[in-house]
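About this split. The held-out portion is used to measure sequence recovery: a designer receives only the structure tokens and must propose an amino acid at every position. Recovery is the fraction of positions where the proposal matches the reference. Here is one held-out target exactly as it appears in the evaluation file.
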């Protein structure tokens, strides 16, 4: 009997951090170039476009079971934190993804601003 782990038709398994990094890359690329993030990420990371699409959909999908429980809990308890409810509900991967998209948009706007300044 061989002590090696099973290999065969299984593909590479990605951690949540790796998935979040790749999804963030897609979002940032799309923010800068308007489209093509899936293909660019597929080429860069070697992950199929279908898999990337599934990861991106799961990243946006609401948590069905937990959403209702959170609404009920929110009605029963009084909020004591100053953080907005949307920030509490988001997971760290979603926050990172939004942050990278915003940074990319800022970079694009700064380039546009510099170009307009030169025209004056």
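Reference sequence for scoring:
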């Amino acid at each position: 009997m061989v002590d090696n782990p099973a290999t065969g038709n299984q593909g590479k398994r990605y951690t949540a951090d790796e998935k979040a990094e790749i999804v963030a890359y897609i979002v940032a690329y799309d923010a800068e170039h308007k489209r093509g993030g899936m293909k660019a990420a597929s080429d860069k990371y070697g992950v199929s476009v279908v898999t990337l699409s599934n990861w991106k959909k799961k990243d946006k999908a609401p948590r069905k079971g937990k959403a209702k429980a959170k609404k009920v809990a929110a009605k029963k308890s009084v909020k004591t934190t100053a953080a907005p409810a949307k920030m509490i509900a988001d997971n760290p991967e979603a926050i990172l993804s939004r942050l990278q998209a915003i940074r990319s948009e800022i970079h694009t706007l700064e380039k546009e601003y510099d170009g307009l300044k030169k025209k004056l």
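Annotator remark: The chain is about 70% helix and 0% strand.
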